[in-house]
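Pipeline run #58 for the internal structure catalog. This entry was flagged by the ingest filter as a single-chain record with no existing model, so it goes straight to prediction. Upstream metadata was stripped on purpose; only the residue string is passed forward. Reviewer on rotation: M.T. Logging verbosity set to normal.
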Amino acid sequence: MSFRDEEDLMPAVRQLPNELVEKINNLTEFNELDRIEVFEELSKIFSLIPVRALPEQKNKEKAPIKCGWSKACVEKDEFNALDYIRNNAGVACGPASGVIVLDIDHVECFEKYLSENNISEDFKNTLTIETGSGKNHYYYQYPTDGFVYRKHQEKKDVEIIPGQSMSIVVFDVLGSGFQVVAPGSIHPVTFKFYTIKKNLPISPAPEWVLDLCRKEPIQDNTALPLEEDLAGTEIKYCYSVQDFPEFEEYEDESSDSSPQRRFKMHFDNSILWGYDKQCDKLSHPAMAFREGVYLALPRSRRSYLCFDLDYEDSANAWSTVGLPEPTIVIVNSQNGHSHILYELKDSVYWTCGRNDNKIRRKPIEYFNAIRYAYTEKLKADKDFTHVIIKNPFSGAWDTSWHDNSYMLKDLASFVELPSKKQYFENMRNGIFSGRNPELFYIARMWSNANVRKQIDEPSLFNSLLLYLNNYNSTKIVEHWPDRGPLDNDEVDRLAKYVSKWFWKNKDNPRYNRNMKKYGVMGLSPIDPALNDEERSKAAKDNKMLGTGYTHIAKRNNTDDVLRTTIDNLMASGKSLSDRNISKSSGKSINTVRSRRDFINVYIDSKKS
């Protein structure tokens, strides 16, 4: 190869046309035609995607609008002006745009980072965009050296007040699979335009930038690592620039309605997968299906009922107990254990992140009831997470597919569903389906009683984690001697989820009525050995005690308010008439009159 040939393989050192820079920097108002014209010109240079300008939902600003947008990082999309009406544009970083971007979030901390790492100012000699918030984006050439460059986020703990700190983002390096708001867009908070600060040629990325986000590409002949080699590793992004996996090689989706195709289409644009149950890798679906031994199903919805059968010759257990034929049966040929999956015609949407209050509870309860009944009938693992499954496309397993899909009511017709009364009886009597449900129940009950005793969310988390670790090492071991305690990481995740939910909802009227005085009377649990009549009598006695306690608590609270009111009226020299006390305290005139004896005694005590 000649020197000239090698030179042709190098990425072009681009510089934005001066006419385009002038158009961008002269944008002074939200003019659709001018902005779309700018975006169209930019699309000839970079791979653009539409992103949100003024989102309806909080924390959705600057988010891509289209599903599967990350493909634009590898292959440029055709520009469609309609996509950018009332929207911003984003530059899809990576091979398609040929850029990797350094995004500065905290200028002062970034300067300290440069000083501490002896980094020179040369990195500024490239195309520089000034954002709507006044910070900088530095554009560099995306390397073609056989490595894939993803994202790095540099954070730092900053003390806000003495003894309390918070984590802030110093800067991001954005590579393949990520996007950055394009010049000509408008900032959703400041309403200022992203402009060109320095129109210099896009220079090669500094080595310190590349070192932060370089990822090893996975080759087809890469040997599978041992399980112990992966233990405790962080999630790794697995993409190859040279051989980016396509979804079924652009096959005609409309002509394929097989269960295999429906299974693949159930997943999002990225899948967590792994060589073991940790699922510590994240990649495009096609790579996950090809490389993964285990897959993680999407957490936002349930399109499959999954069961883990940890015993030999379990593949046909469904037939033996009279259940319908599954959609997928995945068998470990070495020990005969299996996963069986029933596909649902309609997905059940799950609480996930910020949508907790937007999800219908009835379908989830119905789904859980069916899953509970099938688990009992199949004698499946009650500790199964129903999220991490064997990859049916992996050569490690024997997989059989059946073109079946079911409505929930169809699956329910094969079993007797537990009632809510039975469920709560099980909870009350300590009858749990597994270690996870037991610890989850205990975490909720403890948080109910203690959330208002904590000063902040970290305190709630730390206290709950301490309690759960102790419960896990004692009670869980005692209740499940054949399985032992749960992993510390699992306990930690559960404590984070429960503490976060309770702290967020402690003032929510929908939930906080259950968090006020839980267990305040310290009544002993009702003996589960009692018959129905004795149990009903014990419950009635407890209710009467609770009513009496509430009455006394309300009266004491009223008396406290009346004392304060009398003190204020006496200090201001006003009359201590029933009407004045009622008006100042907010209590009704009848309440004040009913407590007149108490009021007179208190007034006499103050005068003496």
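catalog note: Residues 532-572 form the longest helix (41 residues).
catalog note: Residues 258 and 403 are 7 Å apart (CA to CA).
status: ready for reviewer M.T.
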